[in-house]
Amino acid sequence: MSARESRNAQPPASPTTSDAWPEPALLRRLLRAKDRIDAASHEAWPVKRLAAVSGVSDAHFARSFKRAFGIPPHRYLLTRRIEQATALLRDTDLAITDIAFATGWESLGTFGRIFRDVTGRSPGAMRVDARAAMHRLDRVPACVLKAAQRPDLTCAVLEKRRGGGADTVEPSITEAS
Amino acid sequence: MNQGINVAGVYVDDQDEALAFYVDKLGFRVHTDVRNGSYRWLTVQHPDQPSFQLGLFTPGPPVHDDATAQTLRAMVAKGAMPPLVLSVSDCRASYARLKAGGVEFIQEPIERYGSIDAGFRDPAGNGWKMIQAPHGTT
Predict the structure, then answer these.
(1) Contact A27/B107, CB-based, under 8 Å?
(2) A141-150 exposure pattern, b = at least 16 Cβ within 10 A, e = fewer
(3) Residue-wise pLDDT tens digits, A105-145
(4) What's the predicted TM-score (pTM) here?
(5) Which residue of A34, A39, A141 is in closest CB contact with B129?
(6) DSSP state of A172
């Protein structure tokens, strides 16, 4: 058995042994779940689906993901959707409604509200600003630049506001923190 | 060229596994593989780029204490190391070939402003972008 195989070996099922997990091997599997969100942030990512990617229990996944990456998986997903929406606003002429649905939101109202909450600007204003700023950044590889413009989402964002009434949206995943 | 960057390295958790990945899957060549006790200086080269060596280094003694080595391994495993860029002439063809060879791609080829990029990770967690420059540029 190679060093990696022994580090990746599944521990016994007993929960009391979970502290004995080799940390880098677990992190590598959590990274795989994060990569999957990155690759398809428009899809729904319930904890169960992410936990399966990482090969850990649902409860263990949410806790471990937050410990590894600093924010809960649900909130990480929002940052990726907003990053993607910002790129589409800047790089395409798609209507804002189309961008909302293309990036995984199920309601235009929810998209607009969360987008403003996180970026401080409406999607329309972001389109104008992002296009104006583009010429200064054309020496950075586009794929790296896109990630660098991801919002820093360290505070909670409510997908549904109390009394908001009109918006009905199924949370893509349940935030466990 | 006598002056310039000659070696830059990445941290990996398992040098044998990294060697198999960079040589057998990516098509790099071994430049230097020298051991001194538990220490192993291992560098590989892109076949088209003889002036540059990519080091595949393991955190650990004698360079790092245990806590530092553990931290470095964790940083690599959670993808926190700096981006690496591999320049290719045909991103989609390279993607198809490497994916068939078992490379863990994290992003399919995407065209942006005429360049095409895809993303993959080495077994340790280091993230690579594979970029095809737009026609007429370098």
Answers:
(1) no
(2) bbbeebeebe
(3) 999 999 999 999 999 999 999 999 988 887 666 667 777 77
(4) 0.79
(5) A141
(6) S
What CA–CA distance (Å, rounded) separates A45 from A41? 8
In whole angstroms, how large is the CA radius of gyration of chain B?
16
Q: What is the ipTM of this complex?
A: 0.92
Within 8 A of A25 by CB-CB distance, chain B residues are 77
Judge whether B64 and B76 are in contact, CB under 8 Å.
no
Residue A37 near residue A73 (C-beta atoms within 8 A): yes
Q: State the greatest distance between any 2 C-alpha atoms of chain A, in Å, as a whole number.
A: 57
Looking at beta carbons, which residues of chain A come within 8 Å of B13?
3-4, 7, 24
Q: Which two tokens stand for residue B117?
A: 């990029």
Please tell me the predicted confidence (pLDDT) of residue A166. 46
Closest CA to A74 of A98, A58, A97, A56: A58
pLDDT tens per residue, range B5-14:
999 999 999 9
**Among A151, A148, A90, which residue's Cα sits nearest to residue A123?**
A90
Which residue is closest to B113 within chain A, CA to CA? A142
